[in-house]
Write a structure and sequence with these properties.
- With 366 residues, the chain is mainly alpha-helical.
- The protein folds into 3 domains: 3-58, no CATH class; 64-165; 179-300, Intergrase catalytic core (hpI Integrase, Chain A).
- 50% of the residues lie in helices and 9% in strands.
- The chain has 15 helices and 8 strands.
- It has a 3-stranded antiparallel β-sheet with strand order 1-2-3, with helices on one face. A 3-stranded antiparallel β-sheet has the order 4-5-6, with no helix packed on it.
- Strand 5 (223-227) and strand 6 (233-237) form a beta hairpin.
- It is extended and about 100 Å long.
- The mean pLDDT is 87.
Length: 366
């Protein structure tokens, strides 16, 4: 019989235990009467049959741990932000557990995941709660597992309504670097790290995209080709300024363009020797640098905003600014359009003056 009570008497509930095409399903019915337990067991069998069909379609396990591993092998490890992807997959397994079936994750589960993530703080002692943007990254990672599973042949009867679970994110601000702030940062930067920050400012690339390897620097075609956000190839022309930054760095490291000189021996680093810059090293140093320079409210990513703003102000060409920043959609570039407000005002004034001139001419002719 597939519905039974444990002989030890420790649980008041009936349990179920059955197999469907070689897959075993067992657990508590949470019911204390046999009739109710058998009803739960019948529902469980129907659900189990559907799950086994899903397994056959996907040709692999639908346990969250197995789905995450397959996603990592097929997609995650090849992304530009592979370390972040790995971290988010780990968070999902931490929250749901390795044995949670992907097909068992519904809206209520996603809502609990969002609430759990909102209680997390950033790195460092006394750090603030993580931003809605960061919370959304975790939700979107789960959504990507569902999307990938569909390619494997899985069909979800009750897929979460993802939009409902995304938190509102304030519009990204555009922060420009003043000449005084630029001078303060330049004066405070360590000599061995100065080329990296000079390149970030000259290229407008995102932090992760700035971590170049020499095989991405094509001297003959005067171009840098980097794998960027969303797996998109990001081309950057090697301008005379960028060439002057990169050329002297040859010979520092065989693979990585930007390095730093270790100030102490620890964590596999040897004092006085050069080691490749990493994403987390730059993040940590950036906070120290801004405090030392006395620059407030300027993020590393604002180097990108600074370049976009200055290009648009200098040229007035929105399409050119879009290409410089490698935006897929020009809507992303429109956030910088405020710098053209003065040109709009000049145009309006020019039209107004033209109308006045036309009216005077008509009165004189009449």
């Amino acid at each position: 019989m597939s519905v039974y009570k444990n002989r030890d008497g420790r649980s008041p509930y009936f349990h179920f235990d059955f197999q469907v095409k070689g897959h075993r399903f067992h657990g508590s019915t949470k019911q204390t009467t046999r009739r109710e337990a058998e009803a739960v067991e019948r529902q469980g069998r129907e659900k189990a049959k559907a799950l086994v069909k899903q397994l056959a379609a996907a040709q692999s396990s639908l346990r969250l741990d197995d789905v995450a591993e397959r996603y990592w092998q097929e997609v995650g490890q090849h992304l530009a932000d592979a370390d972040h992807t790995e971290h988010r997959l780990g968070l999902l397994i931490q929250f749901f557990g390795k044995d949670k079936w992907l097909t068992d994750i519904h809206d209520a589960d996603v809502a609990k995941l969002v609430a759990w993530r909102r209680g997390h703080r950033g790195n460092g002692k006394g750090a603030d709660f993580i931003s809605p943007h960061t919370v959304n990254h975790t939700t979107e990672q789960l959504r990507k597992l569902f999307t990938r599973a569909k390619l494997w042949g899985v069909r979800f009867e009750h897929e979460p309504r993802w939009v409902k679970h995304l938190l509102s994110v304030p519009a990204e601000r555009v922060r420009e670097l003043s000449d005084d702030e630029a001078d303060k940062l330049d004066a405070a930067i360590r000599e061995d790290l100065a080329p990296f920050f000079a390149f970030a400012r000259a290229s407008g690339l995102r932090l992760r995209e700035c971590l170049l390897r020499w095989n991405e620097v094509q001297w003959d075609t005067r171009q840098i080709v980097k794998l960027g956000k969303g797996g998109k190839l990001v081309p950057v022309p090697i301008t005379p300024t960028i060439r002057d930054i990169l050329w002297p760095l040859q010979g520092h490291h065989p693979g990585h363009v930007f390095t730093f000189v270790a100030q102490r021996t620890r964590d596999g680093r040897v004092r006085g020797q050069r080691h490749p810059l990493t994403y987390h090293f730059v993040q940590t140093y950036w906070q120290h640098l801004c405090r030392k320079a006395g620059v407030v409210g300027f993020r590393f990513h604002d180097y990108r905003h600074d370049l976009g703003t200055k290009v648009l102000r200098m040229t007035g060409n929105l399409k050119l600014a879009q290409r410089v920043l490698n935006h897929r959609d020009i809507k992303s570039t429109l956030r910088y359009a405020h710098v053209l407000d003065s040109e709009v005002a000049d145009a309006l004034e020019h039209v107004a003056k033209s109308r006045k001139k036309s009216r005077r001419h008509l009165r004189e002719v009449g």
